[in-house]
Amino acid sequence: MRRVVITGVGCVTPCGTGVEQFWSSIRAGHSGIDRVSSFDPVGCASTVAGEVRDFDARDYVGRREFETFARYVHFGVAAARMAWDDAGLSSQGLDPDRVGVCLGSTVAAVGRIVHEGVVFAEKGIGRVHPMFPLQYPGSVASEIGIVFGLRGPAYSISTACTASADAIGLAFGQIAVGSLDAAIVGGSEAPIFPALFAAFDRMQVLSRFGGAPAQASRPFSRDRSGFVLSEGAGILILEAEDVARARGARVYAELAGFGATCDAHHHLAPAADGKAAARAVTMALEQAGVDSVEVDYVNAHGTGTQKNDEVETLIMKDIFGERAVHVPVSSSKSMLGHLIGASAAVELIICVLAMRDGVIPPTINLAERDPRCDLDYVTEGARHAPLKTVLSTSFGFGSRNAALVVRRYEGGAHGGMFS
Question: Which of 255, 283, 238 is nearest to 419 (CA)?
């Protein structure tokens, strides 16, 4: 089986557009969360979100595409262009028949669909956009394939909060077994619109913190009260090692393992014992050919909801045993909020940048930890440490669990992949 490496990354997030701006903000512990500005959240108990600001989609898509496609497509195309350029593929091509696209998105174009429904109800058929049928969940993957002229498969994965992890895992497997040479992978979401925001608010899963908006996302904190809804995209370029090496590509890290399971428990609540979720992590570690003692850092799902953070702590103890309290853990959602199906991809980008620079980003807003959440959460600011193996976890609606393992790329042979 072929090894798979990450050669390019790109992102559009509440903490910045473009990898270096984004990474600088994350390293410094700067929050991208503020009061909702795209509509008035009057009547909602939660009034904050992680919105992408200072982003003009017309810098990345043509006029027709700008008018045709929903915001999540604009995010995805923009981040894909950044990742493609970052991988050095602007002037060095791959065989387009052997390059796929695999994107995760759960909300997708629902905001645009709701808008068009209102237009039809209020103004009639003559005002409905003729390209309305293109607001289907697969449009972002297809558009990225069209933009880059890629003729491999264009998959769209909709598995709630694990969507982009699952998309990355699917493409990882296809490259490893030789079905593809490379893939554009990740996720994109634009879930901040009144109807969905109000529904999440009524579900009582959004943060109701009454202080400054930047402090609203409080993973693992005693006073956490829910997650912060956010938007954006994270895109990575995956390549077979031999293909990347042949074109002299710069490699960020090796994507070494993926695991996914289902609790088969509840659409909204995680299984209290965390056993199925722990099995997803174990699967990823085993596929990577590494033992849990080799994991140097965990980028946790860490949403800031009561049950998720408690159960995730149990999962880490199940995986790491007595060592659990010594493994550095951080939740990027403390700064980013929850990008739903795009979260795992953005967090994987954080993992590879952390590995590149030997810097573990902090969890902010953790002033008083929940005694039931007693791991080594990095709270003192960014922590410098050499990183060779990093774990990223994702758990979500529908009882879904996923884990990704990346390790420092040093060339040579490693066993364990798809063995």
Answer: 283
Instruction: Calculate the alpha carbon distances from 15 to 29, 51, 390 in Å.
Output: 10, 9, 22
* Residues facing 290 on adjacent strands: none
Q: Which of 15, 102, 301, 373 is catalytic?
A: 301
pTM as predicted: 0.95
Rounded to the nearest 10°, the torsion over CA 111, 117, 120, 126 is 50
- Is residue 351 annotated as part of the catalytic site, yes or no? no
DSSP result, 17-76: ESHHHHHHHHHHT----EE--SS--TT-S--EEB---S--GGGTS-HHHHHHS-HHHHHH
Active-site choice (11, 102, 161, 373): 161
Q: How far apart are the first and last CA of the chain?
A: 8
Residue 161 bears catalytic tag: yes
Tens of pLDDT, residues 340-380 = 999 999 999 999 999 999 999 999 999 899 999 999 999 99
Distance between CA atoms of residues 377 and 25, nearest Å: 19
Residues 261, 280: contact at Cβ < 8 Å?
A: yes
Q: Which of 169, 137, 150 is nearest to 100 (CA)?
A: 150
**Would you give the distance in Å from CA 315 to the centre of its chain?**
20
| 56 touches 64 (CB < 8 A) | no
Give the architecture-level CATH label for domain 4-407. 3-Layer(aba) Sandwich (3.40)
Among 192, 190, 189, 191, smallest CA distance to 41 is for 192
Tell me if residue 356 falls in helix, strand or coil: helix
pLDDT per residue as tens digits for the range 264-298: 888 878 888 899 999 999 999 999 999 999 999 99
**Which residue in the list 11, 15, 74, 338 is annotated as catalytic?**
338
Q: Are 169 and 260 in contact (CB under 8 A)?
A: yes
Of the candidates 233, 221, 195, 232, the residue with the CA atom closest to the CA atom of residue 33: 232
**Residue 301 bears catalytic tag:** yes
